[in-house]
Design brief:
Strand content: 5-15%
Distance between the termini: 68 Å
Strand order of the largest sheet: 1-2-7-4
Number of strands: 8
Number of helices: 16
Radius of gyration: 21 Å
Helix content: 25-40%
Order of helices and strands: HEHHEHEHEHEEEHHHEHHHHHHH
Length: 348
Amino acid sequence: MSLKDAIKAEADQLGFVLFGVAPAVSPPHFPVYQAWISAGKQAGMEYLARPEALTARSTPEQLLPGCRSILCVGLPYPPPLPPSAAEAEKDYGKIAAYATLPDYHRILGDKLKALATRLPSLAGRVVRWRVCVDTAPILEKDYAFLAGLGWIGRNSLLLTPQFGSYVFLGELLTDLELEPDQPLEGDPCAACYQCVQACPTQALLPERSVDARRCLSYWTIEHRGPIPEELRPLLGKRIFGCDSCQMACPLNAQLKQPGFTYAQNVVIEAYPDLLEAFNLSQEAWEAKYGQTPVTRAKYAGFRRNVAYALGNAHALQAEPLLQQAREQDPDPIVREACTWALKQLKTY
């Protein structure tokens, strides 16, 4: 068995359904990324525009001196399902499918570290490595493409033949010289624009990137201030993230995995009752969402989002709660969101 095959076998045992090796070259879309930053399309995510962050993304050598190969892995997660009959009867919010699971940063990070600790015995020498899971300054979709895991779709996400875009990605940079895999041929998005048409805010760009200044995922997760008024009606009942472009994708729609068991179980509902969600104390909110990506929005950001959703849902029974929060909530952003929501109730 070759070293690469031995590493793949270890990755399989750890539950990585997708595995490939990419060469340690400059990412193909780095010039596009530079132009994206120069145009300010990262919105308020200024950490992406820091000079050191841009330099780090230019080549794997910046992240791991002596890097020769990048092990790219994928862990699929369950696609979003429609609300149940019971959920549909309530004023429910919408949480992106990936966020209903335990935080993938920790899960993938732990699995990649476990894989990394096996490399020295497999290679017969000391191996230098670095684990990357989303937050590291690396254009991970470029390397997943180079490793043959999938294509970069028109919605900017990696589209895999087996699981579509419902895949968590991770990378293990190493100084091992391994034979790289080959990118997949073709382009499933060539004549398709359904995700572009489905985006509520037209945030998808021709170069297969996303203008964060218009992306509802950015506004409901990363942004800490009030969401622009012109975008609030477009939020609908989304309170964390947005799956619209994924749900519109024909490749995702035709996927069927009979008998496949996902490595992670959903731990929170995708369609929470909005009144119950808005009524959560910070302690109760942390207890419920603490192990999931939802905490990225922070407690105040979550309440801001729920207030907008209550207004968009025209949830008249929420009026007393919204009035109380408008007067008493310690966060001015939440108070302003409640004021906006109450106006929507009065105009309904």
